[in-house]
Amino acid sequence: MATGPPLADPVGSPELYRPAPLRTSPQLAMALRTLLFLITNLAVVLTISLILNLLTAIGLLPPDLPLLPLLVGSFVWGVLGAWIALQFSAESAKRMMGIQLVGQGGGSAESWLHSTVAGLAQKAGLPMPEVGIYGSPEWNAFATGPSPNRALVAVSTGILKGMPPAELEAVLAHEMSHVANGDMVTMTLLQGVINAFVMFLSRAVLFLLPRGDREDGRGMAPPPTMLLIWPLEILLGILGSLITAWFSRHREFRADAGAARLTSPGAMVGALQSLGGVENLQDPRDEPTLATLKINEPPGFLRLFASHPPLETRIRALQQASGQAKAW
Description:
Number of helices: 10
Radius of gyration: 23 Å
Number of strands: 4
Helix content: 55-70%
Mean pLDDT: 79
Strand order of the largest sheet: 1-2-4-3
Low-confidence stretches: 1-23, 287-293
Shape: elongated
Order of helices and strands: HHHEHEEEHHHHHH
């Protein structure tokens, strides 16, 4: 499918912008992105530690509170835990959703799916990912995996059978753009930082509460104070999910723009319009652990927790970008 001119950034729509072209290999770009994020996390830890030392020096915090070890331990545990989860993300998705991998052989639909993903990978300069299908009436596709070399692109049987090929190619291009942009890695590291702050803040509050009567006079307060950890973690986790959901919505605009370049803006707009007509189709296995892998649009204020922007907003952004590109 022929591609149009590069998409320009639409005026008044800061959410949609053109991802930088890959001037280095996907592996090197992923390594640099990861290194930069880890350096940023280290800078955050050092900044917070300096603030804690300053507050202790001026007498606002007791000198015997083990906040600095707690801070370092929380960040190591939070980021490391999220990173380990990322390494097994593709295998976990296969097991939870019953994904069957497809190759060049098989039926006509499976063969078309594999060859289409291969063509998009070549066009985007990416390694060939694993390609899979899972049984579900919903119209959905997703990409996951720790790196471009270990990525997985999967579609539901519903979207494979029901969506026109040109539109489905645009959906697959959208998922390949997620791989090219390193969204899985960035989301994982961001979630790791959020987890670290949740762990640190929920326990730091306990250290600041009056201590119970203990022989050594040290350690965390006894129950019922200790029971505050769980409500605090739940509350802070909900607040943290607002940040990850915002970033998840933000990355969808980038992936839409990438799909429009790999196929065409019209095909991507048509795919989104088709998705809007089948939103009521649900996977019977729907559960919160799979939410980020699926297109969802909850009502009302719950949209703040949605992993995807409203379809009409994405369509409008693509149309504005396409119109400005044509004018250019």
